[in-house]
Amino acid sequence: MSAGEDFRTAADATRLGREAAEAPGVVRAQLGANAPVLIELAARLRRHPPRAVVTLGRGSSDHAATYARYLIETRLGVMTASTPPSVASIYDAATPMQDTLCLVISQSGRSPDLLASAEAARAAGALVVALVNDATSPLAELADITAPLLAGPELSVAATKSYVGALSAIVQLVAHWSGDAALIGAVGRLPDLLDEAWAQDWSAALPLLKDARSLYVLGRGVGYGVAEEAALKLKETCALHAEAFSAAEVRHGPMALVGPDFPVLAFAQADETRAGVEAVVAAAAAQGAPVIKAGGGEQAGVLLLPTKDACPILEPIAYALSFYRLVGALALARGLDPDRPPHLTKVTETI
Q: What does the pLDDT look like over 176-227, one tens digit per residue?
């Protein structure tokens, strides 16, 4: 057994690893239990289309909201934006939200700033929909409609299965809202795709990342939110300074840092953004950087991680789960405990 396999086996025994491994089952449960709620909500949104969608979330939940923004705007043509919770919780400012959908994403449903913002949105005329793991939380009670993430107790400080559950709930809603039969069918196969994603061995990336001090994580379009999430997990579990960039934005200055001591991790789902991501990957490799890529084809000087081809909208969800297995192993390889990141707690009660 290789050192990479040893670390991966050890990581699977951590709380982070055990909970991430439950993600395919979480999505299977959602597909059955939440279908009536999401189908009814989708019908309501078709009858009364919102003029805009605003999202609310912090940390991993906000990264899920990034996925929602790209998905809603590209598949439904509805303007979507993340609203800063502090507008309501700190500045006590009211924004008119008549005929808007406010999509609130949360694991705990208890953060004071999200609750204040959701309450303000409802008072301003928005339809408040909560995608929340704790169905008994104040957020679930406040929302007009709640679709539980059904991830069960998540004790790891670093969210895994609840993040995958949030992405799954978002794509289920968009599939039903759009009425896209092909996407609805693909979503029905998402649990099987996630089973395969968890089985993928990404341990070949460990030697390129084990001693790194900083790196970029790149994505674009529906894959950008997963890049954001990966960068966060590298910070909190591996004490590794990681910045997420759109593959389009990284060319505007940040590429100056890329070189032999500055790795790049890229996600390249099979849609219109792939060529752009791969062009940046090629440029990073040409600058001598260790480059790791999930998705796409073989490229000179680039470590291509194993993935399963699927509906491009769903590929980033699979990448996220494969990455979680990698990041647990990477934390251990760096001498850290992914279940005990310093200075962090499970519920962050931001005001």
A: 999 999 999 999 999 999 999 999 999 999 999 999 999 999 999 999 999 9
**DSSP codes joined into one string, 207-271:** HHHTT-SEEEEEE-GGGHHHHHHHHHHHHHHH--EEEEEETTGGGTTGGGG-BTTB-EEEE--SS
Percent of the chain scoring above 90 in pLDDT: 88
Are 10 and 38 spatial neighbours (Cβ–Cβ below 8 Å)?
no
Phi then psi for 295, rounded to 5 degrees? 95, 160
**What average pLDDT does range 306-319 have in this prediction?**
98
User: 218 and 280 in contact (C-beta within 8 Å)?
Assistant: yes
Catalytic residue annotation: 346
Q: How far apart are CA 142 and CA 184, in angstroms?
A: 29
Name the average pLDDT for the chain: 94
Backbone angles phi, psi at 199, to 5 degrees: -80, -15
Residue 303 pLDDT exceeds 60: yes
* Distances 146 to 88, 136, 138, 159, 245 between C-alpha atoms, Å: 21, 10, 11, 20, 32
Q: Show the tokens assigned to 236.
A: 């909190």
Half-sphere exposure of 60 (CA within 13 A, CB side): 27
The DSSP bridge partners found for residue 184 are none
- Identify whether the C-beta of residue 173 lies closer than 8 Å to the C-beta of residue 130: no
Look at residue 94 and tell me whether its pLDDT is greater than 90: no
Residues 6+ apart with CB under 8 A from 26: 149, 150, 151, 152, 161, 164, 165, 168
CB neighbourhood size of 184 (10 A): 16
Secondary structure, 3-state, 53-112: EEEECCCHHHHHHHHHHHHHHHHHCCCEEECCCHHHHCCCCCCCCCCEEEEEEECCCCCH
pLDDT for residue 290 is more than 80: yes
Question: CB neighbours of 278 closer than 8 A, spacing ≥ 6?
Answer: 268, 293, 296, 297, 299
**CA–CA distance, 27 with 160 (Å, rounded to integer):** 13
CA distance 79 to 100: 10
Query: Do 231 and 242 meet the contact criterion of CB atoms below 8 Å apart?
Result: yes
Please tell me what DSSP assigns to residue 205. G
